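Page 37, continued from 36.
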């Protein structure tokens, strides 16, 4: 039986009235051929822009060889991707999946299993942070702890203890005999580009060492070069035990990863976790292509340079329109503008003028351009932002 009120596509998204047909570099084109400057990157995913020639080439080459064979067998691009991620991070080992939420699921299971294998079966709780976002599975909405995502889906998975972001005393107070791990986004993305101080992450590391807990970083949004270093934790003096990646890892091809030290992963044995599609040859070939570009000499340095220039121009705009932009947050090309007017209104106005940005919590508008942007893209973005901020400032003055 059909229900006239229910569209063929389950209506869980409030979609904008635009359908994109193709992309090229930092631009998307809709069905009418209208061009948009893409400073959203599909929510921090299309790291190298659209249709990057190297990614297209590696995808096409892999497509002609092998699409899928299952993790029952060796998969050459997957093996190579694991070796490269391990070589360029704190980790000794990697598990591949298809999304950020799945990467977190692996991280949560790994932390429980670590203590279980050492006979501490009571240790299963994880200290998390208010404002966090870790995905939409039952475990990850429970870990995120936000009412707006749990509403109607309770009971959530038990075992998560949320404390205020950045409050080390509350973290200490939340740790008990059943605590297994601490889970944190070094920069909260959906929560509104809220960054921790490096010292806070270092304190968490110390606490974990003292209390025999595992430290799990969620770098799904802030990892893969977005802050100007391959991983956000590289800005600190600490390393995690486990780290979740996804989004930019595949540059637009779905793939996630859970990286871990040998110690943290020591409970994971054949048969205890898995995924049909995880580590698929096509996804891994593209992720290797993303790494080819990110790891090329000078690339991340260039990202840091372009990010500084963008930030400098945004600071000037914010100073010119203090009622519209109240604060600039973030690092590298993971930037948030805390707005005076509703962020959704500003985002809609930008889109009407051919520029995409993404709203986040705390009335923040995220700017997440692809890492390949050049000065001309900055100029265009600043020009459009200026026009829109000027309009909003005018409306405010008229009220
Ligand atoms: N973790 C963080 C920090 C995220 O930003 C997201 C998605 O926005 C996720 C996890 C979930 O990723 P996915 O939507 O790929 O499951």
């Amino acid at each position: 039986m059909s229900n006239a009120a229910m569209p063929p596509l389950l209506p869980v998204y409030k979609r904008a009235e635009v359908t994109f047909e193709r992309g090229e570099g930092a631009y998307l084109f809709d069905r009418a051929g209208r061009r948009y400057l893409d400073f959203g990157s599909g929510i921090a995913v299309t790291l190298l822009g659209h249709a990057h020639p190297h990614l297209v080439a590696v995808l096409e080459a892999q497509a002609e060889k092998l699409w899928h064979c299952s993790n029952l067998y060796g998969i050459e691009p997957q093996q190579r991707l694991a070796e490269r991620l391990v070589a360029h991070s704190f980790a000794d080992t990697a598990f591949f999946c298809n999304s950020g939420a799945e990467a977190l699921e692996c991280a949560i299971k790994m932390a429980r299993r670590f203590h279980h294998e050492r006979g501490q079966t009571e240790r299963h709780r994880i200290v998390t942070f208010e404002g966090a976002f870790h995905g939409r599975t039952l475990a990850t909405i429970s870990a995120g702890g936000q009412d707006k995502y749990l509403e109607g889906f309770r009971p959530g998975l038990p075992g998560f203890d949320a404390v205020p972001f950045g409050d080390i005393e509350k973290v200490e107070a939340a740790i008990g005999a059943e605590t297994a791990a601490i889970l944190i986004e070094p920069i909260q993305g959906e929560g509104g580009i809220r960054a921790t101080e490096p010292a806070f992450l270092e304190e968490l590391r110390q606490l974990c060492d003292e209390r025999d807990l595992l430290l799990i970083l969620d770098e799904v949004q802030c990892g893969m070069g977005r802050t100007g270093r391959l991983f956000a934790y590289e800005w600190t003096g600490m390393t995690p035990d486990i780290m979740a990646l996804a989004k930019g890892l595949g540059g637009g091809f779905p793939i996630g990863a859970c990286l871990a030290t040998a110690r943290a992963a020591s409970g994971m044995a054949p048969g205890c976790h898995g995924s049909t599609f995880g580590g698929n040859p096509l996804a891994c070939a593209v992720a290797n292509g993303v790494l080819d570009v990110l790891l090329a000499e000078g690339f991340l340095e260039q990202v840091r340079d372009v990010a500084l220039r963008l930030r400098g121009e945004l600071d000037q705009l914010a100073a010119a329109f203090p009622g519209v932009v109240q604060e600039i947050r973030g690092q590298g090309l993971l930037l948030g503008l805390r707005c005076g007017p509703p962020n959704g209104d500003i985002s809609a106005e930008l889109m009407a003028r051919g520029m995409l940005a993404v709203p986040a919590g705390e009335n923040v508008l995220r700017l997440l351009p692809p890492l390949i942007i050049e000065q001309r893209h900055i100029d265009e973005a600043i020009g459009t932002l200026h026009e829109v901020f000027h309009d909003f400032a005018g409306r405010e003055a008229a009220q």
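The CA atoms of residues 3 and 216 lie 44 Å apart. Flag for discussion at group meeting. The pocket of pyridoxal-5'-phosphate is lined by residues 43, 99-101, 104, 133-135, 185, 189-190, 218, 220-221, 246 (CB under 6 Å).
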